[in-house]
């Protein structure tokens, strides 16, 4: 006696992309031309797929065009909802494209993050309120912020309104009008929509800047996934904080750099800037950068008093574990962050689906940002659409 898979059930392909069989179910794309090399300018692309069998996602890939750009590229997978793409499920680290006329592979098991909201206020206050945010159950959220005061800047007493946030690091820098940089983290036990309040109790601060990030693929069982932190202070052009040996090569490292002169921030070698902002009274800068497999978290600014807060995030998966994807509908996403990246791509003049276009795209991506937490679908239209050759592999090595 022998056993074999049900002949009526097809397995998910080793390579899933907009032109593979997974993209031909219910969401139909018409008028597709053969992929050719082309430059993409600040664009996010979404393509619907149907996964027929349970699989593991090991690596994201895209087919580079005839030249190699100098901008970051990121690929991801979004859940499917009645109106189109929902929340992001998995994403590669943002990576500079490399290898002309070649397929580029990027790990899908590393912890990755994206900015949910970032803002600042130079109005004196005992608390500062973020924009309304959507926080997902069981995901890591990191809230970096810097606050200022004429004397010693105070430590925040709590982060209010949303899930329970825990203080992970806080330190003071600047010998004049003092500043304090802090990191708080949360892993919600239920979904939350609303504002967050950075509360300093009865202590009035002269300003505050904050950056909230959501993380994917994080092992949150210990300290919400924060493996270690490190701090550094100085008064020169090279902010730096040095971490101990990292727990794994695919653990991301983030650096929150603040300075007391509102000086723009240039990330260190191998790091990507996620955000850079200022407030005026007193002059303050807050910037966030991310990298992998590097314990020296550094940057460059014009000379000023500065503070650098570095943290290591624990990835949930090992390199051979793979991200589990159950059968169902999903959306592939690909982002070219800048104006120089080329990729093999096709175009279509008409689309159809249950509710929206089988392919949607969002333009005008801000340099330094990653794939968003959620996608905003476009209406069905018969205009030309760009379809990049990108997707994921269900085997550890091609």
Q: Tags for this entry?
A:
6-stranded antiparallel beta sheet; Jelly Rolls; 52% strand; 398 residues; mainly beta
Map the helices and strands:
Layout: E1 15-16, E2 28-30, E3 36-39, E4 43-51, E5 55-57, E6 59-63, E7 72-81, E8 84-91, E9 95-96, E10 103-107, E11 112-121, E12 127-129, E13 133-135, E14 140-149, E15 158-160, E16 166-173, E17 178-186, E18 192-194, E19 197-199, E20 207-216, E21 226-236, E22 240-242, E23 252-259, E24 266-267, E25 272-279, E26 284-292, E27 296-300, E28 304-313, E29 323-325, E30 328-337, E31 342-348, E32 350-352, E33 359-363, E34 385-388, E35 390-393
Antiparallel strand pairs: 1-35, 2-32, 3-31, 4-30, 4-33, 5-29, 6-10, 6-35, 7-8, 7-9, 7-30, 11-20, 12-19, 13-18, 14-17, 14-20, 15-19, 16-17, 21-28, 22-27, 23-26, 23-28, 24-27, 25-26, 31-34
Helix content: under 10%
**Spatial extent as radius of gyration:** 22 Å
The tally of strands reads: 35
What count of helical segments does DSSP give? 0
Structure description:
- The protein has 398 residues and is mainly beta.
- It folds into two domains: 15-109 and 319-393, Sandwich (Jelly Rolls); 113-313, no CATH class.
- The chain is built from no helices and 35 strands.
- It has strands spanning 15-16, 28-30, 36-39, 43-51, 55-57, 59-63, 72-81, 84-91, 95-96, 103-107, 112-121, 127-129, 133-135, 140-149, 158-160, 166-173, 178-186, 192-194, 197-199, 207-216, 226-236, 240-242, 252-259, 266-267, 272-279, 284-292, 296-300, 304-313, 323-325, 328-337, 342-348, 350-352, 359-363, 385-388, 390-393.
- A hairpin with a 2-residue loop joins strand 7 (72-81) and strand 8.
- The chain starts with 14 loop residues before the first strand and ends in a 5-residue tail after the last strand.
